[in-house]
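FORM 12-B: Structure-to-Sequence Request
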């Protein structure tokens, strides 16, 4: 399972296990989300 974390209430260091950490969802585009959640190819 993939994880996109937003630093609203926890600092980045506590979210380091997430696949992507951002300060706000406003900076995350559809392209980044597609790359993050795309199933791995063999």
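FORM 12-B RESPONSE
SEQUENCE OUT:
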């Amino acid at each position: 399972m993939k994880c996109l974390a937003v630093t609203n209430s926890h600092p980045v260091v506590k979210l380091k296990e997430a696949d992507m950490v951002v300060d706000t969802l406003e900076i995350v585009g559809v392209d980044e989300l597609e790359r993050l959640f795309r199933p791995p190819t063999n």
